[in-house]
Amino acid sequence: MRESEIIDLFLRHLRRQGDLPLGDDAGALRLGDRWLVATNDMLVRKTDVPDIMTPEQVGFKTVTMNVSDVASMGAEPVGFLFSLGIPPDLSADYLEGIARGIGEALDFYGLPVLSADTNEADDLIIDGIALGLTGRLLTRSGAKPGDLVCVTGDVGRALAGLLVWKHGLGVPEKTRKALYEKLLEPRARVKEGAELSGLANAAVDVSDGLSKELHLLARMSGVGIEVYAEKLPIRGEVTEVAGALGLDPVEIALASGEEFELVFTIPEPLLDECPVQCTVIGRVLEGAGVYITADGKRQEMPVLGWEHLGKAP
């Protein structure tokens, strides 16, 4: 079964949910005039850790991927919890590296660790939990026709870096460094998430691929979305890798997962008030579906990105 099918199966039985129904980057409970936001995200060595990633980067990434979900909900992270599944062959030095990386991430994001657990497993598994607080939730279902679609940072470097590693592609060291920065050391957009809480209508973090996140936003908001290919913030290093492999840099940008950038929709009149550095890549429309316009031609955007228990992009 694919990940989406497993989720649907469990949702048929998990009827007792929080004040925010399941389906967003995180769940939430209302506490007076604020929301307690909670998420959990699991890292598994076999599927999530290329062999060029250091144990410190593994630990840091575990915190980042959870904190990013909280940030995408417009919440300020306030705590972190985790459980470790440890295989018998994992060395003490590697394990200490993971601990060091988690500690560095907690310092970077200014978070306390609240609880932790360990157990034996067949592979390295780190299951993280992040908690956050906000006065106004950002969800995947709030996009409105007329909103602008925006994204922080740039997209495509994580997948381009993975392709360089996977194919042993010879690229200049400057290019490799820029790509591996996003692949191995991504950072969550915590400040941006909090700043968007009072302005944006909807948001999601780019964990499974920009294309997949846009389709989620459109479906859950009951709207259509049009994206302009020439507006996508694609760095030259991504274009360089695409050219070397005979690929389309736009497709790399749309499929690239674990970018941890924020995609959000905002009313056009509020864009000038938005303190977040971002790129306007499209617009929310009446109707349904996601479309991409390139060279004056408009077509349906394919669903590109990562899905566990499915095929990699």
How would you characterize this protein structure?
This protein has helices spanning 3-11, 45-48, 55-72, 92-109, 157-167, 173-184, 190-196, 210-221, 236-245, 249-255, and strands spanning 27-31, 34-44, 76-86, 113-120, 125-134, 148-152, 202-205, 224-228, 262-266, 278-285, 289-294, 297-300. It folds into 2 domains: 3-134, PurM-like, N-terminal domain (60s Ribosomal Protein L30, Chain: A), CATH 3.30.1330; 148-300, Phosphoribosyl-aminoimidazole Synthetase, Chain A, domain 2, CATH 3.90.650. The two termini are 17 Å apart. By secondary structure, it is of the alpha+beta class. Helix 3 (55-72) runs parallel beside helix 7 (190-196).
Write the layout of secondary structure elements.
Elements: H1 3-11, E1 27-31, E2 34-44, H2 45-48, H3 55-72, E3 76-86, H4 92-109, E4 113-120, E5 125-134, E6 148-152, H5 157-167, H6 173-184, H7 190-196, E7 202-205, H8 210-221, E8 224-228, H9 236-245, H10 249-255, E9 262-266, E10 278-285, E11 289-294, E12 297-300
Parallel strand pairs: 3-4, 8-11
Antiparallel strand pairs: 1-2, 2-5, 3-5, 6-9, 6-10, 7-9, 8-10, 11-12
Helix pairs in contact: 3-4, 3-7, 5-6, 5-9
Whole-number mean pLDDT: 93
Largest sheet, if any?
7 strands, mixed
Count of DSSP helices? 10
Shape: globular
- The amount of beta strand, in percent, is 25-35%
The top level CATH class name of the largest domain: Alpha Beta
